[in-house]
Write a structure and sequence with these properties.
The chain is mostly helical and 667 residues long. It contains 28 helices and 5 strands. Helix 26 links the parallel strand 1 and strand 2. It starts with a helix and ends with a strand.
Length: 667
């Protein structure tokens, strides 16, 4: 009865605590009050799980130790594996690859022996997390794929979590299409299983993909959809990520009020949960937003708040990042002496290798170049600019991260060293120092890699920009040339052709019939040339109207031209290139009929069948021979234009009975 009351009080106290830290304190109080092994084991599991959510490994290490001790003593392999997997996740967060791999191997060995497929999937999922943290994305994807295969073969609900991690690792590789596909699978599975947390996480990943693709409207839509599911529920990291994602999205959309609103929501959550590392990051973001809005007073306020936290956490990286931002702020205000003082201090830290060597030193050099440029000391400005580029070049030669083989080798080496307990006690402090140095160097390498990618991205952006400007220049020249052609064509069509028609009429009145005919031939050639130069403005005048106008121009008392079916076709849906070439083919055909066929009647018939347009041109003239088809340039032009639009053209004639031309186009 006493045990039941104790457990009941534990669940009541932990459920009604209003913050994560409050729940942890409640669990500690309940743990202190009970001595029952089974009850302590349950409380310890809950305590370790809650502590894991706020990165409180140092203060809860004793509870992990007791959890593993009880599980070992009672030979409770299930809870032993649970503890190993939680510790794997904790050391992964702290970038301690050797410790994380150690607990992976311990858990994996037990689960392999027991053929515990659910926990085997969790092992590989954890292994993928280690590789992902160190940017070994191919290895991470392999591990997640193994977890996915185990889940698929054994129909495990854990598959939703694996889909989410596959989406994240592809997002980290900038493969946003594949990332979104996995996130959609995760969302569908979560909806099916009514798992609200995983559904919200999946929507958040999709929103992040849209944000990185600069589709901020879509990013906003999916983040808000995700928050509709998770906001108000006990999903700490899920809601925190959504708030920070929305803050970044609104910052990109230049809506600072909204960016600040969601940054402050994230800050409020973090203050309740007490995670100061996240608080530092959000405060820097808030300060940056205020800076972009021109509210330098608020920007300074939050930069200095963040600086205080960085000093309390002894975060050299955080402190230097803030001091660099403060320097930019002072440079923008023209306070060059104050900016110089701050950045020289940061640079001294960097040179002494107290802080981040490559990125901080590089930022310091470019800032000093800006400061001395503002102070009109161009010699010093150039000096630091050269140092900036020299350092950026040196970064390119450094490795970004360790390979999986190196991680496994370190783990095996440490395992052998631990077998000799006496040697382990003698070298504990040395091993700890080496481990810290390794993690610090690895952090340097990752940040250096980030800087490299930034430089490469800037280089390709500049190259693409120059190419775009060159292409735009070429296009503008081509457009100017086309306008000149159109001007000439319009002049030939509207002025010169009409003048020649007047001359031909005058010659006819004087009885010079041959000269009149030759003048009209020249006029028709000029009309065709004008069509070549002048782009037919289909956007300004309907195509069927242009064809009717063309036929009207050729219509006379000697040659009656009719048309049929032209208005039954939706010409607006036909490509302009097809319409232009069809117009010129019909113009050439009608010109030939008028000038050479001696016809008194001609007809142009249009017919649309499915995705095909057929045009038939007939006349009652003298027809033509195969030899005539070989001679004329106009016939060759008609064939060339039909080929250009992937169509065919057919010529049929009966001597002294007329001719027929068929044009067949597939849309």
């Amino acid at each position: 009865m006493k045990r039941i009351l104790l457990l009941t009080s534990f669940f009541i106290v932990s459920s009604f605590s209003f913050s994560q830290q409050g729940r942890i304190d409640s669990l500690k109080a309940v743990l202190h009050a009970t001595h029952n092994t089974t009850a302590r084991l349950k409380i310890l599991k809950k305590l370790c799980e809650k502590s894991s959510e706020i990165n409180a490994l140092e203060e809860t290490q004793i509870y992990y130790d007791e959890l593993l001790k009880i599980a070992n003593e009672t030979k409770d392999e299930k809870n032993l594996v649970y503890g190993y997997q939680l510790l794997l996740k904790e050391f992964e967060k702290k970038r301690d690859s050797i410790k994380a791999l150690e607990y992976f191997h311990k858990s994996h060995k037990i689960n392999l022996k027991n053929k515990d497929y659910l926990n085997l999937a969790k092992d590989y999922n954890g292994l993928g997390g280690i590789y992902n943290k160190f940017q070994l994305y191919e290895k991470a994807e392999d591990a997640y794929t193994k977890a996915l295969d185990i889940c698929s073969q054994n129909n495990l609900d854990y598959i939703g979590k694996v889909y989410i991690n596959l989406a994240i690792v592809n997002q980290n590789q900038n493969d946003y299409t594949i990332s979104t596909q996995y996130a959609l699978k995760a969302r569908d599975f979560a909806e099916k299983k009514n798992n609200l947390k995983e559904e919200s996480d999946a929507l958040g990943i999709i929103a992040g993909n849209y944000m990185w693709l600069n589709n901020n409207e879509k990013a906003e839509e999916f983040y808000k959809e995700a928050l509709l599911i998770s906001e108000g529920k006990d999903f700490f990291l899920t809601n925190l990520n959504h708030y920070r994602g929305l803050a970044t999205t609104y910052s990109r959309m230049r809506i600072p009020d909204k960016a600040l609103e969601y940054n402050f929501k994230a800050l409020k959550m973090l203050e309740n949960y007490g995670d100061r590392i996240y608080i530092l990051d959000v405060m820097i973001s808030i300060a940056g937003t205020y800076n972009r809005t021109g509210n330098t007073k608020k920007a300074y306020e939050y930069y200095y708040k963040a600086l205080k936290i960085a000093n309390e956490l002894d975060s050299k990286a955080g402190r230097n990042a803030i001091e660099v931002n403060l320097t930019f702020l002072k440079v923008n205000e023209g306070k060059y002496n104050e900016a110089e003082k701050i950045i020289l201090k940061t640079l001294n830290d960097t040179i002494d290798r107290v802080a981040l060597p490559e990125t901080s030193e590089r930022s310091a050099y470019i800032l000093l170049s800006m400061i001395y440029e503002g102070k009109k000391d161009f010699e010093k400005s150039l000096h630091y600019h050269k140092k900036y580029f020299r350092l950026a070049y040196d970064i390119l030669s450094k490795s970004q991260s360790e390979s999986v083989a190196e991680l496994d080798t370190k783990y095996q080496t440490e395992k052998k060293e631990k077998e000799n307990l006496a040697l382990k006690k003698q070298n504990a402090e040395k091993e700890l120092a080496v481990q810290r140095a390794t993690n610090l160097n690895l952090t340097y390498g990752i940040l250096a890699g980030t800087a490299i990618l930034g430089l490469i991205g800037f280089f390709y952006y500049s190259k693409t920009r120059r190419r775009k400007l060159r292409d735009e220049h070429i296009i503008s020249l081509a457009r100017a040339k086309q306008k000149e052609h159109e001007k000439i064509g319009a002049d030939l069509h509207s002025t010169k052709a009409k003048e020649l028609e007047k001359i031909a009429g005058a010659l006819e009145e004087k009885g010079e019939m041959e000269l009149a005919r030759r003048t009209r031939d020249i006029k028709e050639n000029i009309r065709l040339l004008s069509h070549e130069l002048f782009q037919i403005p289909f956007s300004q005048e309907e195509f069927d109207d242009q064809i009717i106008n063309l036929l009207y121009d050729y219509n006379s008392s000697a040659l009656k031209i009719t048309h049929d079916g032209i208005s039954s076709i939706k010409w607006a849906e036909v490509d302009d290139t097809i319409k232009r070439n069809l117009y010129l083919i019909i113009s050439e055909a009608i010109s030939n009929i008028k000038n050479h066929s001696k016809a008194t009647q001609a007809s142009v018939k249009f017919q649309k069948r499915n995705k095909k347009i057929d045009v038939t041109i007939t006349d009652n003239g003298i027809g033509f021979t195969d030899e005539d088809l070989k001679k004329g340039h106009g016939i060759g032009n008609m064939r060339m234009r039909a080929n250009e639009i992937k169509g065919t053209i057919r010529f049929d004639a009966v001597k002294n009975q007329g001719s027929e031309i068929g044009i067949f186009i597939t849309l």
